[in-house]
Amino acid sequence: MNLTRLDLNLVVALRALLEERNVTRAGQRVGLSQPAMSAALARLRRHFDDDLLARVGGHYELTALGQVLLDRTATAYDVLERLFASQADFDPAAESREFRLVASDYAVAVFGTELARVVHQEAPGIRLRFAQTPPSVVDDTATLLSATDGLLMPHGVISDFPATDLYDDRWVFLVAEGHPDVGDRLTRQDLARLPWVTYQRTYDAPAVRQLGMLGIEPRVEVSVDSFQLLPLLVTGTRRIALIQARLARTLTPIAAVRTVEPPYEAVPLREALWWHPVHTHDAAHIWLRETAARVGSRLAGVS
Fold it and tell me: What is the pTM of this model?
């Protein structure tokens, strides 16, 4: 593929056409007349040797290739937008822009809230947008990182990308206050026989792998995609849940639960900010990473 022969403006037109599925609306969206957008569609059809939009009755539907290109075009658009928004200098007090960070609700609650507070004080024109980590983070990390400003994730899940360490955490167990079967300590036998509430996503992979290595198979009764819901699903039950100690300190006051240390030496958790190498030398990203590291160092001082 010879990129010098391509008109990158067609990426804008392609995204609008695939998402609107209507030539007139796509033209209005990007500021082109209906004839100009029709001409762009014709060029795209010649390039891909595919109709992309096929008329079905009184409307258009995406062809099989058009459906494939839908997500890829959105990603490519985001990458190009970030590429051409790169800056040699960045003044956080005067700039107005948005940073998009992908994170679990745990990372947002423990770290994101502090980061947002610092940004609010030091860079009033800067906006932060936190997005939930998709299940594809392990399988397609490069694509995810290329279309965002950073990923908050512990070590042990992904690798081979630059990262800055933020703070350490550890795992504890949640049990209901007055649990009939658990006193001050849990045993490994308790972990095998008691019902669990689990967070079934890649974030807790190292901790889950450790349980498997110890021969412990959790008897999962409830599974949820939110760490912050774990205390509410433990309250008033015989269930137990594995949760980060920093988050537990924040949430235990709002639920009738208490924490118990694991009956084994639990693998530690080191939270980090990961980014795509394309962002490494961008002044705005350097500021974001330095600010994140500063916030992380403050958290690290509060164990």
Answer: 0.73
